[in-house]
Prior knowledge:
Layout: H1 2-17, H2 23-32, H3 39-48, E1 87-97, E2 100-109, E3 115-121, H4 126-140, E4 147-150, H5 154-157, H6 159-167, E5 171-174, H7 184-196, H8 206-221, H9 235-248
Parallel strand pairs: 1-4, 4-5
Antiparallel strand pairs: 1-2, 2-3
Amino acid sequence: MTRRLDLQDRIETLAFHKAGYGYRRITAELRRQGVIVNRKLVLKIMKESDLLVRPLRGFTITTDSKHAFPVYPNLYQNQWPDAPDRIWVADITYIRLPLGFVYLAVILDAYSRKVVGWALSKSLEADLVIEAMNVALAERQPPPGLIHHSDRGVQYACHAYTDLLKQHGVQISMSRKGNPYDNAVAESFFKTLKKEEVYLSDYRTPEEAKRQIKHFINLVYNQERLHSSLGYVPPVEYELQYKQTQTAA
């Protein structure tokens, strides 16, 4: 009984600090802490304590693809690259504030799911995605041949953005019209961000939103959050594992 109560305390603590974690991630986190436990018991305890995460609604399309700029073929096809900086995926979402919206543009590495660049603005102009891309390019300095995948939105199709990509030897890839599942990695990130950060916060100003989202992306999501698709390790750790295998080889 003592062990059961101790385990319940651990689960409740994790559920509080890791808002949005389901029983699988809670189990994985417990195992990383050296606790020997199976998923069924974690699920049972979380059900009894009303700690199970309720699913969110599906994808929402917010892209304006009615423009005269060139549209590029889908080179990505939701493939899983075998190394970092082979494929980046980009997308935009909106965040509601008391007096309007702010828009968040992100770029994720499709191999590690790490956010490699992001920008937040009250404007939905191309400058938003250009800023996010410049951050990613400066941080990662990818080799030529990198595939950049996005939807067909005007921000990604405009010449200012595509010229920037071409200048750095980046191949341009775009989703099929009206199909958000072609960019499921980015959509999954936004779902996580909103469930585990945005919907739990009460941003009053764009500056406050930016400060808290920066903390979530840089510290929580990239360095701490366990990803089921990565074998329940964070993106930074997953990339480190890759580098270690390359060094050993």
